[in-house]
Request: fold
Amino acid sequence: MIPLSEPTFAGNEAQYLQECVDSGYVSSVGPFVERFEKTFAATIGASHAVACSSGTAALHVALRLAGAEPGRLVAVSDFTFIASANAVAYTGADVLLVDSECATWNMDTELLHDEVCRRARRGERLPDVVEVVHVLGHPARMEPLLELRERFDIRIIEDAAESLGAEWCSGPVAGMSVGTVGDIGCFSFNGNKVITSGGGGMLVTADAEVAARAKHLTNQAKLDGTTYHHDTVGYNYRLNNISAAVGLAQLERLHVAVRAKRAIARRYHDGLGSLPLGLAPGASWANPSYWLYSLLVYENMPGPDHVVSALAERDVQARRVWPPLHEQAPYRPTERIGGDVSEKLYRLGLSLPSSAHLTEADQATVVHALTDVLR
Ligand SMILES: Cc1ncc(COP(=O)(O)O)c(C=O)c1O
Reply:
């Protein structure tokens, strides 16, 4: 079976893990945590980075620091993995789901912008925070959100869990990496992500005070290292040294992974262009990292369930994309804006094998299998 997404271990992982064992630093204290944080911040052009036990933990802390709490409203992408909304639910804030745009599959930020302006004119409730997700390796359109921050002081959290290495290449945020444009950016190092630490996450921010507060909250809000005094309810959200060691080794080869994923995307574009498919989005203003290469089958073709099982019969693992959050049990009663784009993405979308070490021969097998299924 050609897998959907497997980690690639081709760098210093084993050496760094050995150093953890030799030094005895295997838990949440140890040199790799700080090295991972500093190198991560430098790699993506962030001022501060705080390692966390997961991407969900990073989002939870970020939202809390942005003011999400009971009585507040957080706008979230409707088309995303459920962790994006769960992190909001943990804070007790209300969720406002925002539909996707067809061009990038990301939150339709212009739609949100216009809705917020309309609500402001009528004196209706506005979101306090927007958590925008850069799905599947493609950056979201940020200008409308920057305007909302400017006009209404709406904080921006970027859920960049899936999009490490993606950037904008034109417009006001040209040259910036995902995660560094909003007030706080969050990443995941789960096993299937662009890089992995086994499990883990990172929170980045330009604000030193926010970073210090995030570090504090991830460590049970402990006031000093030796006594047990705490100034608020914190969390055990620290990343351990072993995970940080793997994460650092992976990060050292991030450029290789992203280059490989972009090459994979180019080959899928070339190989699948003549089939009845809407290929993976790639806006002219974005430089996606193509974490998971995902596409849409045409409406009149066999649906993605059929395609996924037909590919499995040909030893290719594909997977449908997420149902929109408004169709998920915990978020069914949630307020939302927009039309049916996220529903269409779910109805027609699927992801293809995208591991960074996917060989050209295996990719040709995927293309051949998909051609066979759709012709
Ligand atoms: C968009 C998105 N947000 C958040 C998360 C949560 O990250 P983690 O699994 O590290 O908690 C993930 C992936 O797992 C994700 O895809």
About this structure: The longest helix spans residues 254-272.
